[in-house]
Each structure stands twice: as structure tokens, then as C-alpha cells.
Amino acid sequence: MSIWKKSLAVVLSGVLAFSLSACSSQDAAGGDASSGKVIKVAYRKFGSGNKGLENWLKSSAAEFEKAHPGVKVKLVPIQASEADFFAKMALTMKSPATAPEVVTEDTFMISSDAAAGYLEPLDRYVSGWDEWNQFFEPVQRGMKAEDGKIYGVPYSTDTRGLYYNTNIFKKAGLPVPWQPKTWEDVLAAARAIKQKVPGVTPFWANVGKATGEATTMQTFEMLLYGTKDRLYENGKWVVKSPGFLDSLKFIDQIFKSGLGPELSQVLTGQAGDIVANQMMPQEKVGIVLNGNWVPAAWKETGPAPWKEGTKVYQFAPMPTQHGEAPGHTSMSGGWALSIGAKSKEKDLGMEFIKIATNKEHQKQYSLTQGDLTPRKDVAEDPEYMNAPGTVFKQATSFLEFTHYRPGNSQYPSVSTQIQAAVEAVAIGTLTPEKAMDQFAQNVKRMVGADKTVEK
Amino acid sequence: METAKIGEAPLAGRKRTSSQTRDHLRAVLFLLPAWVLLLVFFFGPILLTFYFAFTNMSLTGEASQQLEFVGMANFSAIFSDPNFMTSIVNTLVFLVFSALIGQQALGLILALLMNNRSRTFRRMIGALVLTGWVTPEIVVAFIFFAFFSDSGTLNTLLGTVGMEPVKWLYEYPMTSVVIANIWHGTAFSMLVYQAALGGVPKEVEEAAMIDGASAWQRLWRITLPMIKGSVVTNMVLISLQTLGLFTLIFALTGGGPGVQTETLPVFMYHQAFVSFQLGYGTAISLILLLIGMIVSMVYIRLLKVKI
Amino acid sequence: MNKIRFKTQMTGKALPYLVLSLIGVAFVVPLLWMVFASLDANANLALKLPEQITLNNFKEIVTSPDNQRAFLNGILLSLGQSVLVVIVAGLAAYPLSRYQLRYKSPFMYLILFATCLPITAVMVPVYQLFVYLNLQDSFIGTMVFLTSASLPYAIWMMKNFMDSVPLELEEAAWVDGCSIWKAFRVIVAPLMLPGIFTVGIFTFAGSWGNFFVPFILIQSPEKLPASVSIYQFFGSYGLVEYGKLAAFSFLYTMPAVLLYMLGQRYMSEGFNFHGAAKG
Question: By the CB < 8 Å criterion, does A38 face chain C?
Fold first, then answer.
């Protein structure tokens, strides 16, 4: 009869594999309690762009651990391209086994992730927190989801504009300082560079799906919000509009007339790094449509140290399409620290956030990462405003005419459709008209045709 | 079949009734772990696919909390989604050129040519082809990313014969992924055909040779019909491997530029995980599963597999 | 006349060697970059001989604790999966090969049918199932899922291997007083080695480079296998660190190569599908 026992043992070992696997996931969550508390801080680690972020979280963690003996901060870097990161983050936040106490949230995800139940409302925390008033109001508003509750504490904000290479401009016979008044001015400058300065990419902008939200915001919305049209109006998505079409046509023109970068340089997830760390320091690109953080790469401690960077590349505001008032446009977003709704140690998470977003750490972050500060007291700090090798001053002045993205829980999905349209136009597989048609069709499917409008 | 004969043997010498029930119980025990695993982790997800494909499940936003049944909405959307048709075409092109033609033909040619060659030579060439197969999929992607890059190996080689560099991954993306997959997969077909050819008796070929049949005739009339079973099996196996292939394309081109190399699994990934529409993505998965089921049934019917 | 004939015979003999050599070379060429770049201190995507040969790329990969862990994770995941597959499929194949069972035929059809389903491409429901079962981020859960995904073809192959093991030996063992289980272990299992190796290596090679499954099912960085962590080289300092990427790739390919070499002599049997299908 020993066969019975033995085969039973085999079967049991199979069953054991199950129970083990069930245990292990509980261990990961529950085992922490016995060996002192642990809070997890999840953030994106990809490319050089987030070096400052990681250093900031590390020093904040050190201070936090000092203030809370027995509590450990576990940094959870998520290695994914921008396009894959938000999915990975959602998967992480969805399950109590992995939900981090603190997450870095791009503000455009706040409404969506709050509606999904991934984020914890912070109202009860910030109501008694005197420093909350230190944050600029428009940025504070961006922390609210559609239910009116606050879901994050901001640690950065930003504006976007045109970097132009003064040396290349002089060679091309273009004025320095440069103040383009219309899109046509921008195109004309790019054409002049193409003609007179060979070997240089005249105009650079994110156009790939792999660069995710950067393609939507730094490129498409910088164009769209310079037209008369918007992406979301009166509770409806504007899926077709003249402004939408013109924005795609601008991209089409850039690439059709050979004014844009090589596709191999711009369609990869590292496009942002390639332009900031290689093309710009080598002065291989004339005009770059990008955010205010770019010069952070040229700091002494950065990936591509370059002292003269901000002298060679100056930062000009993006003109509206035909020079319509107020003449310029910009887009602002930013990042926040949020608390995972399914995490264990929410109170400690908030304590960590308070430390990480205090004046000292915020200043450190802005100076190393190159992001604009959301805090008034940091903004007034001369060390910040006059920081060498940054474009803080110009970038801050863009806040006057800047725009914010729709704070809508469907925005993230709609945004991915914009990226698909932009890439298709840039590589020339779809005409601007066709790309807009596809965009309209996909968005209608996703949000329901009744929530869209065509102009 | 033979197995049935074998199966009867142990029963023969024993008392039928008790040993049969005992065998039965034993069989259940032996099969139990496999059953449990298959039910939970294989057929479980398939059942869930049938369910989720008809919902609006989402990775973020309201729909990730409240699952709503949306009927055929996902499918009517899929069939009017131009990118879906593109990905079907891409999947077919990829399947036909990389697997059915590329791997299959090259594998057969290799096996035929290697038949009767010196042992050392055969082993050497075999080992070279096999490196492609044992190289992990993600590494294959990196290797070919370098191979096809602007200043990469292929352009360097073309340069030595005076050809201009080509942006392979951007101008010929489908050709590039097809080549990468042929490199990765050919060894499998080669091994299958080597084994099959090994089973063809020498006498038959020799007899045909004496009858004056040309090499070509021998191949078509004698060798191929004799290994027909292996050909079909191999075709089905590599088709299915290719149908579900994700890592190689994802890491090499990400489905791009645009949607030019977006096959069904990559399309599914983009819809489900990048655009956050899990329900829609699952509907695509379901179509992928249905294609697999059809291939499978055709295969079983075609070969009249006896069990 | 004789001369011409001799000539065609010679070319007829030389041609296959030539063609085979060319194909062989074509298969090596893509690998050259990986080898050269891994030894190059200033590697990029171009194919070039390193000006300075260095082992630093390898040293940095091997000495990094993160990489060690990722490799270990990968080996545990794939090896664990392979062992589980061999055990579970081997057990299942035994009654399917040896007994007359009423449900055998439908079961084998189901298995054959399942072999054709691209289950690893259906990750949304799998992920959701993991959430339901609270297996999300579980290393063993991922291993068990990968095991289940490989079971259909593994059972199919194992049964065919087992059919070819003659029953007489087993019967002799029973006569000698061996229990069925002991006969299974002592007689059947050793004769099954080719099958075990083939199935094991198949399984291992199939999952070793799999990026998708662990990418979706595992969230904690410290549990990720090397197939996912290899992505780090796409990031650091903006330039892809091609030298390290190549070195990592090289090291990452080695376990599969070694395993294949170990099992090679058993493998050729595994590709004989005559038993699987009668045309």
C-alpha cells in the first residue's frame, strides 16, 4: 500500500506549491509588521531624467527614518518606459500585497487613479497641515479629482517652450534673441536652419508613442492650446476641430519637409535623453520644443555636464498659431506624492510626504531635477530663482499664459490615442485628416459618443 | 492504437474488477496535480477571457471598480477599429513569412543538406543554427536592434559592397522582425526535420535512385510524403509559437513605427495596458484564443490524430 | 565525358557544404556585435573590434548584487518551472500511457487542443485571476502559472515518450515485488531520461527569455527575473550602456546554452513527431 502514501505525498507537494504561493504573497505584506514597520515608496526609474528624483527620495527617506526610529523606507523603483510606467503603477497599486504607501503620481493620472480607488483622499491630512498653504493655488487645484477631494501633495510643476541654439541661429542668419510670433515663424526658422546649417536637425519634438505623455503634452497640446480649440470643453471631448487638424498638420509639415529628427532618435523611449544629453550638448539641433527641466542634464552632477548650456540654448515662449492674444502659450503639469489606498501604513506615508515636500527637500529637488517648484517659499528663494544653469526665470514667467490638462478620469486613455495619431502623422503612415478620424473614432468608443463633440 | 494494447497487458494477469478500480484510482492520483493546475491556471484564465471580453473593465478610472457588462460593444468596436485589421494583417504576414516560409523552409533545407554530410560538419553547422534558438527572446531582440541599427552590423556589411546604409527598423520594420524571428526559430524546424529524415529508410531512397529518379523527384515523391506527419505537426507548432510571440516584437520595435509591426499580442498589450482598456484588450485576447482554437481543430481533423 | 561527370559530381558534393557554410555564417553574424561590444569599453551599436579589450562590462554585471539577484530569480523561476513541469507531466503521462481509461481519449484531445492556445499572450485574465487568488506579485504563483501554461505540450510529449518504454521491463519488476510506484521511479523514469530532458529543456528555453509574464505578474523589483531587469540598460544616464547590455545578454544566454549542451544527446529523440501524429 506504500504506493498510496507515496503518490499522496506527490500530490500533496503539488498542493503545497499552491499554499506556499498563497503564503508568500501574504508574507510580503504581513511579514513586515513583525520586523518593524516598512513603508514603500514607488517611483519611476528610467533613463537619466530621474536621477534627481531618486536622490531626493533617498535623502527624504534618510530624514524620515531618523525621525521615525524602527520604520524603514523601502524605495521601489519601477523600470519602464513612460508608456509602460502607468500600467505598471496601476498593477502595483491595485493589490494590497504590493500597494505602496507613497507613489509618485503624474497629475494627469490623479482623477483616473482616484476614481479607480487606487489613491487615498488626503483632505483629513492636509486640513490640519499649516504648510499646505505654501503651495501655489493652481497647482493645488490640480490635486483634486472629480469628487472634489485632494489626492496628492505636489512636488513639481513645469512649463514648456522652445529652446533655440544661439550659435546655429546666428549661422542661419536668424535673430538672437528669438521671439517667434506665429507657428509660421517657427517653421521659417527651421527651414532657414535646414538650408544654411547642414548636419543639424532643425526642429525637435517628442512624437513617439514610447515617450507617452511627453508626446501629448510637450508637442501636441503645446500646439493645440495655441489654436482657438481645446481638447475638452463643457464636459465633452472635442474629437475633431480645425485646431486639432492644424496641430497635426504642423507635425506633418515638420517631418515631410525634413525639418524633424531621425525617427530612430525620436521614436524610442529614450528620445528625451538623446536630445538633452547628446544632440543639444553637441549642438546638433536648432530648435527643441520641450520642458523647463532639460538643462538639469547639463549640471556638473548631471549626465552631460555643460556649463554654457543655458547660454547656448535659450528658452523662448511658444507662439500661438497666428499670434492670437495673449501671443504665447504653454502647458503645465507636474508630479505629486500620493498615498496608495490599499497600503497599510497610510499615516506614516503622509509623514514621509510631509518631510519630502518641506522647503528644504523641495529646493534640493528643484535644483537637481530642474523642475519648477510648487512652493511659494522656494519660489521666492533667490538661490532657486537665480540658480545658474537653469531657465527657472523664463519658465516661471510662462505661468502667466499656461494651460492645464483636462482633470478628467478619462484623460489618460484619450492621451494615448493622441500619441498614436501624432506618431502616425510623423512617420507618414496617416494623413493629418485620417489620423484625426481615427482619433475621433477611438475616443468615441472609449468615452461614449455622447461625451464627444466635433467642431 | 499501440497504447491500448499495452494498457491491456497489466490487466490481463489480475482479477479484473478490483484491479480495474484500483488502476482507476491510481490514475486519478497520478493525474490530479496536472488536472488541478490546468483547471485553475489554464482553463481558469480562458473562462475569464470569455467573461472580461464582454465588460468595460479598465486599468484605471471608474470602470476599474465597477465592472459593467457591455454586451458585444467591444467586438463591434474591434471590427471597426482600423488598427485591428492592420494587426490581423501584420500577424498573418509575420506568421507566413517568418514561420511558415522562413523557419520551415530554411529548417527543411538545412536538414536535407545536412543529411549524409560528415558528422563533424553537421554538428558544427547545427550548433551555429542552434545558438539562435537557445538565445533568449529578449536577447534576440537586443541583438537584432544592434544588427539593424543605422551604424549596425548589417549596414556595415552592406557598406563593404558599396551600398548605402538603410534604416531597417524604420523603413523595413516588418522585414526586420521577420528576419529576427527566422534567426531565432529555424533550429526548431531543423531539429524536427532531422529527426524525421533520420526515420526515412535508406533503402527506399536508394531504390528510387536506381530507378533513375532525380534528387528533386525523390524529395517530392518519396521523402516529403514519408515525413508528412512531421511537416504538419511542425507547421502547427511553430504557427502557434509565432501567433503568441510578444517579447521579441515588443523589445525590438514595440509594434512600431506607428502600427507597422503591431501583431495581435502587441495590439492587445497596447490597448489593455498602455491605453488602460482591459476589457477591450481581453476581447482581442479572445480573438487570439479563437484563432488558436481554429488552428488546433483543423490540425486535429487534418491529421486524424489517433490517441 | 568522364571529366564533365566528375566535375558535376564534385560540385554536387561541394555545393551542400558551401550552402551550409553560408547559412552557418549568416547565423553567426548577428552574434558578433554582442561578443565585440561586451568586451569593448566604448561600445555602441556599431560593429567594430574593441580598441581596448576590457572585462569591465562583465565585472560590473557580475558584481552587482541587483544583477546577481535578477539572475538567481530567473534561474529559480525557469528551473523551478521546468522541474514542476517534468514532475507533473510525467505523473500525468503514466496512467495515460499505461492504463485503459474511459476518459483518456477526450482528455488527450483536450490536451492537444490546449497545446495550441497562446495562453501566455492572454495576460489580462491571468493577472485578474492572480488578483482574485491573492497571488499577485507572488514568485511561486508566477512559476505555477508558467508551469500550467507548459503542461499541455509537456503531457503530450511525455506520454509519447512513455509509450515507447517497453512494458515488459516494468512487469518484470512487478514480478520481483516492486510496487507500481517503485517500478515507475526505478524502471520507467530512467528510461524516460531523453523525454525528461527534452521536455525540461523545452520548458526552460521557452520561459528563460520571457519578459511579458513576469513583467505583468511580478511588481516588486527584488523579485523580478533577469529578463525584465535587463531593461535597466535602456536607461542609465541616457545613453544605453551597450557594453553592459551586451555583456548582460551574453551571460544571460549562457544558462540556456549550457543546459542545451548537457541535454543534447537526449534531445534528438524529442523532435521525432512520428509518434505524435500519423499522417
Answer: no
CB C79 within 8 A of CB C204: yes
Cα B142-B144-B148 angle, rounded to 5 deg: 125
- Whether A276 and A423 map to the same domain: the answer is yes
Across C202-223, average pLDDT: 88
C113/B296 touch (CB, cutoff 8 Å), yes or no: yes
**Residue B5 reports pLDDT greater than 60:** no
Per residue in B233-270, pLDDT (tens digit) is 888 888 888 988 998 999 899 898 989 999 999 999 99
CB contact under 8 A, B289 and C124: no
Neighbour-count burial for A104-113, b at 16+ CB within 10 Å, e otherwise: bbbbbbbbbb
End-to-end CA distance of chain B: 7
* Shortest Cα distance, chain C CAs vs residue A40, angstroms: 10
B neighbours by CB contacts (3+ pairs under 8 Å): A, C
> Is residue B82 a contact partner of residue A438, using CB atoms and an 8 Å limit?
yes
From the list A24, A48, A81, the residue facing C138 with the nearest CB is A24
Q: What is the pLDDT of residue B123?
A: 86
Residues A252 and A375 occupy one common structural domain: no
What CA–CA distance (Å, rounded) separates A191 from A184? 10
Exposure string over C239-271, b if 16+ CB within 10 A, otherwise e? bbbbbbbbbbbbbbbebbeebbeebeebbeebb
Query: Looking at the structure, do residues A366 and A445 belong to the same domain, yes or no?
Result: no
In Å, how far is C274's CA from the nearest CA of chain A? 32
Are A117 and A51 members of one domain? yes
Domain boundaries, chain B: 2-37, 75-303
Query: Residues of chain A whose pLDDT is less than 70?
Result: 1-35, 47-49
> What residues does each domain of chain C span?
62-270
More confident residue, A197 or C8: A197
Average pLDDT of the segment spanning C151-157: 90
Q: How does the average pLDDT of chain C come out, rounded?
A: 84
Per-residue confidence (pLDDT) for residue A373, from 0 to 100: 94
- Candidate from A22, A270, A277 with C-beta closest to C135: A22
Number of inter-chain CB pairs under 8 A, B vs C: 320
**Alpha-carbon gap, residue A422 to A430, rounded angstroms:** 9
The 10s digit of each residue's pLDDT in A183-228 is: 999 999 999 999 999 999 999 999 999 899 999 999 999 999 999 9
Q: CB-based contact (8 Å) between A84 and chain B?
A: yes
Chain A residues with CB under 8 Å of C141 CB are 21-22, 24-25
In this structure, is residue A267 part of a structural domain?
yes
Whether residue A5 is contained in a domain is answered as no
CATH fold of the domain at C62-270: MetI-like fold (1.10.3720)
**ipTM for the complex?**
0.85
Cβ–Cβ under 8 Å, residues A370 and A276? no
User: Looking at the domain assignment, is residue A21 inside a domain?
Assistant: no
Specify whether A50 is located in the same domain as A127. Answer: yes
Query: Among residues 7-66 of chain A, which lie with CB inside 8 Å of chain B?
Result: 7-8, 10-11, 14-15, 18
Same domain, residue pair A228 and A127 = no
Q: Which chains touch A (3 or more CB pairs under 8 A)?
A: B, C
**A429 with A305, same domain?**
yes
Which candidate from A7, A83, A442 shows the least CB-CB separation from B29? A7
Q: Are residues A187 and A301 part of one domain?
A: yes
Judged against a pLDDT cut of 50, whether residue B11 lies above it is answered with no
User: Which CATH class, in words, describes the domain spanning B75-303?
Assistant: mainly alpha
Q: Is pTM, for the whole model, over 0.80?
A: yes
- Report the CATH number that the domain containing residue A190 is assigned in CATH: 3.40.190.10
Find the angle CA(B170)-CA(B83)-CA(A236) to the nearest 5 degrees.
Answer: 115
Number of domains in chain A: 2
Please report all neighbours of C, defined by 3+ CB atom pairs within 8 A. Answer: A, B
Distance from the Cα of C23 to chain A's closest Cα (Å) equals 29
Q: By mean pLDDT, which of B193-197, C21-25, C166-170 is the weakest? A: C166-170
Q: Which of A310-314, B119-123, B286-290 has the lowest mean pLDDT?
A: B119-123
**Residue A91 belongs to domain spanning:** 32-158+334-398
Looking at residue B179, its pLDDT comes to: 97
Q: Which of C28, C119, C171 sits opposite B42 (nearest CB)?
A: C119
